UniProtKB/TrEMBL annotation:
InterPro entries hit by this protein: Methyltransf_11 (IPR013216), SAM-dependent_MTases_sf (IPR029063)
Domain of life: Eukaryota
Gene3D superfamilies: Vaccinia Virus protein VP39
SUPFAM superfamilies: S-adenosyl-L-methionine-dependent methyltransferases (SSF53335)
UniProt protein name: Methyltransferase type 11 domain-containing protein
Residues in Methyltransferase type domain copies: 50-156
GO molecular function: S-adenosylmethionine-dependent methyltransferase activity
Length: 283
């Protein structure tokens, strides 16, 4: 039987962003579901929302789906990020979605935003979300106090982070061991994040309490991402090489960096049906 496959012809950087957002999208959707966005006690036509660390705009995409289902028209939506490449990706996402008839994107503002120094007045937003961004902050307390500052009275903030990086021991480490046996074993990339406490559900409430937040709730969410083997290998290969560049000797990195993605792809195809990783990601 013949099979067909949709090929992603976007530039490599954008392909990686799109694949990463297949992985972070379910977390964004769950965080929004747990929020007060569709609470009937909230004046839903006056919602002012900041997506902080928007990346390619996946949380905004999930947000627009949610508000559309409930006939809500937010007053203001800002998709903010500090990284210029991410801002370009979000802007392209906006352009593509508007061209596809997704009119909600017309009201989305793309802005350069620093977690630790938000360019907004006190009490500017009813809701602030940061999907997989807070643990990258060098000073997460400053980022949290800034989030608290720009929220309106009775506003709500949502932050997501990875509890574990399950594909690392299940795919990356065995792939390198099997197909690149001469390379030194790499530690988990979770140790490279500036703030590691965000993987500990018991420690997170204290962080938020210290910044002034009340009624803090921590929820754990697990899921299996849906991505083709080629997409998954390309996206995860980027992170593996980031770690390798730090921990391998320069000559080892130069010799093997280009072989990391093929090794990951080979492992996926040899160990998983259709090459799709079936592990569970925990956030």
């Amino acid at each position: 039987m013949a099979s067909s496959q949709v090929l992603n012809t976007a530039p490599a950087d954008r392909r990686v962003v799109l694949t990463n957002e297949k992985v972070t999208g379910p977390v964004a959707a769950e965080m929004l579901r747990l929020s007060t966005l569709v609470d009937t006690s909230v004046h839903r036509q006056s919602l002012e929302i900041l997506d902080n660390a928007t990346g390619g705009g996946i949380l905004v995409s999930e947000l627009l789906k949610l508000v559309s289902q409930h006939s809500i028209q937010p007053k203001r939506i800002i998709a903010g990020d500090l990284d210029d490449k991410m801002l370009q990706a979000a802007a392209q996402q906006k352009t593509d979605c508007i061209a596809a008839g997704e009119t909600g994107w017309q009201n989305v503002e793309i802005a350069k935003v620093d977690h630790q120094s938000l360019p907004y007045l006190r009490e500017s937003f009813t809701h602030l979300f940061s999907n997989m961004g807070i643990f990258f902050c060098a000073d997460d307390h400053k980022a949290l106090t800034e989030a608290y500052r720009v929220l309106k009275h009775s506003g709500q903030a949502g932050f997501s982070s990875w509890k574990s990086i399950a594909w690392w021991p299940e795919v990356a480490q065995p792939a390198l061991k099997a197909y690149l046996p001469d390379t030194p074993e790499l530690p988990s990339p979770s140790g490279m994040f500036p703030v590691r406490v965000w993987s500990d559900p018991e420690a997170i409430p204290g962080k938020l309490d210290a910044a002034g937040f009340v009624d803090v709730k921590v929820s754990e969410y697990t899921f299996t991402p849906v991505a083709e083997a080629e997409e998954f290998a390309e996206a995860t290969g980027v992170l593996v090489n980031i770690v390798a560049k730090r921990f391998w000797a320069e000559e080892v990195y130069k010799k093997y960096a280009g072989e990391v993605e093929p090794a990951l792809l080979r492992y996926l195809k040899e160990h998983y049906e259709d090459g799709r990783w079936t592990g569970r990601k925990a956030s």
